[in-house]
Structure formats: C-alpha cells, structure tokens
Amino acid sequence: MLRISALNDAATHVGLAVDLPLANARAICPDVQVHDADEVADADALNAIAEWCDRFTPLVALDLPHGLFLDISGCAHLFGGEAAMMNLVCSVLTAQGFRVSGAIAGTAVCARTLTRHVHGRIVRDGEEAEAVRLLPISALGADMAVVTGLRRAGLKTIGEVADRGRHEITARFGARFTALLEQALGHSDAPISPRKPLPDYIVEKRFAEPVATEAVISATLSGLAGTLVAAMGKQGKGARQLEARFFRTDGAVRTITVDTGQPVTRGEVIDRLFRERLEALSDPLDPGFGFDLIRLTASRTEIVVQEQRDLDAHVHDQDEVSALIDRIAARIGGKRVVVHLPQDTHIPERAVLKAPAQHHLLEAAQSTWPARVAGEPPLRPLRLFERPEQIKVIAEVPDGPPARFVWRRATHAVVRVEGPERVAMEWWRAGSAVLTRDYFRVEDEEGLRFWVYRDGLFEEIEQQEGKAVLPNWFMHGLFA
C-alpha cells in the first residue's frame, strides 16, 4: 500500500497527513500531485546539512529520516547564547530553501518532540515535563500502533499518559515506549550517537569576514598547528592523524586528512605536511566566496615517549626516514607507500607481505630476511608477477628443464638452467589437492634470466586426471 511520507503546507490545509494511504489522499483531494519518494536523495541532503552543522558543534547526530541532533553543551556562548545560536542555524537553513523547526532542551527526545509542534522553544533544565505536557501523543514519534492504542484508551496528550502509572504503560505498550516517555519528560536521558567520533584535540579559527586568499589560509593553518601542538604538549602527546576542515560560506565543507608514522610534536612539521597535501590535491581547494571557519583536529594521538639519544649520527636515521615517508604519503596517499615484511612460508607469492610504511616502518627495520650467499646470484627474482603467466615449453625429457619456451608470443632459447627447486604447496590450506611446483632459473641466448615453474609432477597429474597429460608451465618472475 502506498502511503504519504512527506507533504507541503497546501496538502496539510486540505486535510492530508503523513502516513495517510494514497488512495485516501486522492479521495480527499483528487487533484493532489504525487511524486515518488527518493530516500537516497533525502539521506544525502540530510548528511550534507549535518556536515554543515559541524561548524557549530562537532557532536552532530542523525535523527532519521528528517532530523538532526546537535549537542551544544559549552558551544552556545560562542554564538551569543542559545537563542542567538538557534536563530542563526535556522535562518541560514531557511535561506537555503529548507523548512526548519528547532528547539533546545535538556534531552534530545524532548527537543525533538517540541519541534513537531512548536518552533524556537527553549526549555530550561527541569521544565521538560511542563513543556511537553499539552502536546499530542503523536509528537513523541512512537509507533502508530502505540499511538492508536493510547487514543482508544482516551489518552490523547503526553500529560495524560504521564499521569498514569509507569507499570500500567509498560505492561500495555512495552518498556521501549516508557523509556521514550521518560526522556521526553526529562526524567532520564540517552546520549546521542554522533556521526563522527569526537577528536582528541580541536582548534579552530572563525573569521568575521570570509577569507579566500592562499596566504591567509596558509597562515591560519600554521597558527592553528602551533596552538594544537601546545595543547597536546601539556599532556605529553603527539598527533598520529590530523584533519583540517574548511567551511565555506555557501555551506560546503572540505576535509583534508594527514597520517603520520610517529607522533608529531612540532607545529612546523604539521604545517609542512598540510602544504604537501594541498599542493598534491587533484581537486584543488576551492574557497568559493570564502571560508568563514578553519578547523584543525588531532583525531588520533599517542603519548610521546622520551628517549635518550647518544651522539651516534645513525640514531636519527629512522626519524629522517619516517619524516620522508610522511611527506611522500601526504602527496600520493599513505596506501601507496609500503614496506615489505618477510613471512614464514616457503610459498613464493606469500613470502612477502606489503604493509603501509607509516604504520610498519619499525617492524620492517627489525625484520630478518634470509641471508644471501656472497658471490652467488639470488635464488628468487626481485620482481614477481601478481599472477603467473602461462608459457609453452619444449623440454628434452618430459620431467626435465625447459630447452625452449614461448612467452608473450616471443620464443626464447635456453642456454643455461639451474634447478629444479621443488616447492610442495600448502595442501592443508586448500579444499582440493594442489600440485607440486618445480622451479627453474633459466637464461636465454640474449642474457635475460627468468624464473619459471612446472605446475605438477607427472604422477600427480595422472592420479588426478586419470589419464596421461602434460603439466602446465608458468612464468613467475624476472631476474634483474
């Protein structure tokens, strides 16, 4: 059954309401214009509004499908008080074409209940019950079955329900509705769930007039970096993840994130990392008509461990490498800067693990790789293919090394061969039998060296296929 999910003032005046069946609506108003609801677009618009509201408080929660919760504890004085702050938020959103109803109360449920019938109400602590007493039950936002049941029982307002015993309400309509009622009356509260976790440290700069020049933006970031470092230094902490947010006057918000390999405790390092990041943006920072707020946060911090450094110059090498990795990661992204960690396995494609360098640099420095025999060529190539490529091989004997092979439509005559190196696959990890590999290091007549393998032994293939077939050959890597 199709129902109304939203309507305008004209539809309300003719008697239509939310959740009314569409057939009933057309019976009341045959000329009603109907449009399909777009829940995805509504959610995107609500998220965009929530992103804009971050300029007032970092604690913004979604109240689906059409509402927002803002925890303004300790923030209202920055905007001239609670009334001035609410008027500012509502007037800007109204100017953008939205219909807004706002209220301020000690509990989120009380504020939401008020917005459904009264706009601009500010309720002081302890006055929640009196503020919602005369409102209809439907303002609580409970299930329609509960609202209908209360109306049939003769309880039409929140005050009438509040006067009844809680055990009666719970027995008839459930503990969930009782908890909702208690929160609306201000007798209990439940914390909101912000869209984003609260950062460890926040510093910001508001401008009386929007700024758009690169010099002012850079100078502002530098000043905020120094303030942030000073705040963290009082508690002996350094930043591991930094986030700069630029709030435009038209409501658009741009967020730039920078990760670091070690806790950062210097403002000039933060400033340099953001400069690198801004210069490397594929979509440059567009100030539009200007930014009226720039915020710098430390989303993740760590306690800085004071280490005693000796006079050995090599002690600082690790710090220099970490700083270089941070700068490169700021330009091209942390996922593109990796280190290779050895793994305890004899399977070639699993012997090396790629990990982000910013988070595994120390682990990579302490890793132990297999020792190489002096004067001998490497046993494994430097370059392995992500997927081995099949080749055609001609061998002098069926289970012998290749004498000639065709790879990528080019024929190579083999002049030198080393092997085989037999690798038995990890049969306990596979759901079916896995063939044994025989690896060969081969060199062609032009001096190119390859790493190829025969996938399976003849006796293994005969047992699996039940008939004599030739094993497949693959190119797995290239030697430098």
TrEMBL record:
Gene Ontology biological process: DNA repair
- Keywords, A to Z? DNA damage
Cofactor(s) named in the record? Mg(2+)
Domain DNA polymerase Y-family little finger residues, every copy = 202-308
InterPro entries under this entry? DNA/RNA_pol_sf, DNA_pol_Y-fam_little_finger, SulA_CellDiv_inhibitor, UmuC
Recorded catalytic activity of this chain's protein: DNA(n) + a 2'-deoxyribonucleoside 5'-triphosphate = DNA(n+1) + diphosphate
- Tell me yes or no: is Ribosomal protein among this UniProt entry's keywords: no
Could you tell me which SUPFAM superfamilies the record lists for this protein? DNA/RNA polymerases (SSF56672)
Cite the GO molecular-function annotations of the record: damaged DNA binding
Q: Give yes or no: UniProt keyword DNA damage.
A: yes
Pfam entry (one): IMS
Q: What is its EC number?
A: 2.7.7.7
| Residue ranges occupied by any UmuC domain in the UniProt entry | 4-115
So what does this one do?
Poorly processive, error-prone DNA polymerase involved in untargeted mutagenesis. Copies undamaged DNA at stalled replication forks, which arise in vivo from mismatched or misaligned primer ends. These misaligned primers can be extended by PolIV. Exhibits no 3'-5' exonuclease (proofreading) activity. May be involved in translesional synthesis, in conjunction with the beta clamp from PolIII.
Task: Output the PANTHER family linked to this UniProt entry.
Answer: BLR3025 PROTEIN, BLR3025 PROTEIN-RELATED
Quaternary organization: Monomer.
Protein name in UniProt: DNA-directed DNA polymerase
Give the source species.
Bradyrhizobium erythrophlei
Mind giving the lineage of the organism this protein is from? Bacteria, Pseudomonadati, Pseudomonadota, Alphaproteobacteria, Hyphomicrobiales
